[in-house]
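haha ok so turns out i had the wrong file open the whole time. this is the CORRECT one, sorry everyone. sequence first:
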Amino acid sequence: METEIYRKSTVHENESMTEKTSQVAGKSIFSLVDCSATWGINLWKVIFDLPDEKVNKLNLGVMEQFGDLLSRLEEMGKQNQIDVLVLLSGKAGGFIAGADITMLQAAKTAQDAELLSQMGHKLMNRWEDLPCPTVAAVNGAALGGGLEFCLASSAIVVSADSSAKLGLPEVMLGLIPGMGGCVRLPRKVGLATSLDLILTGKTLSGERALKAGMIEACLPMEDFENSVFRWAKANLNALQSGKRLAKEPKLGGMGGAFGTFMEKTPFGRKLIFTKAREGVMAKTKGHYPAPLEALDTIQEMGGAYGVKLKGEARDQALAREAKGFGKVASSQISKNLMRIFFMTEGVKKSTGLMAGKVSTIHSVKNGAVLGAGVMGGGIAQLLAAKEIPVRMKDLSAEALAAGISVASKIFQKEVKKKKINSRTYLQKLNLIAPVLDYSGFRSADLVVEAIVEKMEVKKKAFQELEGYVRENCIIASNTSSLSINEMQ
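then structure:
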């Protein structure tokens, strides 16, 4: 049974805020919090935190509770109680991962899947039509339905942290965006960019999304929530007027007069669709219907850059999307891809160890690498990329410099691809500590050997290493051909 509770929360210099929480079986999903006393405007926040789950995802229970919350927000909006509303996730490092795939998998017919899409459309339309501006504050992954939720908001503000990723990867499951992505994304970033994202399933970092005109701001990860509130207050007038705050996208994928011609004329748009279809056929050979259905859907609804659709035009476009979603979601190809997804996730979660053989999983908080060559530098970079401090040992300063150079080049490639920014690059590179001795190895949970491929040299290194690590430290070798048993 659903209940609603009100309580006082103490935050921001002990100022009290009234909080309304929507609950199911005593566990909250959405919390509505009044932050007005702190910020001097009628600023409220909604916290989405799905109980007993590592990530937020959209399922039938969430949709039902969100509908109840929308009713409350609609009433508050009519009474001018909210100047701006900020949507936040209660999950550290994650926003909304998308729709619950088990819900989609359960849709047996095209009509079942189409109905799910229509349910999502109704909720997103109500969110988009609230009588107050809404800001989606993304600190983590906003994928699929998560990004579609953002696109229905008045503005999207993203953390500059490397964990922030935005995209519509539905084609990877044999689907097309079904909560308004086919309608709203082209109008936000243009036809060429939206097709590139929807047809490939690629994701963008906060910085790349800002450059593409998908989001309104990319803010530092430190004190992110308060930074979002400051941004919302500073841009309140523009948000309330509906003014575009995002960067103008490069129409046609290139910008300029020619890009504008490509997207804003029937001939240009036809050429974009033709080239996109040729690309899909070259890649899939026509064996996967989802990208082709996405193309048909967007082309038939006349997807183009511009202001958000409203009223009958929006209803007609979303109806076409729901029909296309139902068509592919009920296909056997989509069901098979969903099964592969679950099997892959199962492998990721597996420890590879037999049940009962270990009592706890060995976590790695600190690492170390023996050898600073190409492989050693690469292994150190991989650990640092996962934010694990790592000692990298070799016999000379020159070898250590070479290992650091290897790691640096890998990180620099990620900067070039906009996967991380320059600040994150330096932060992660500084996690690698080059050493000429075994200092710091006592704290290592994992040591990976990556020295010369000679058995006697490796044996000697392991014998020496044993005296500098803890009893429960895992020792591994990067060898490609020598016997691990003999080393042991």
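The CA atoms of residues 182 and 298 lie 6 Å apart.
again sry for the mixup
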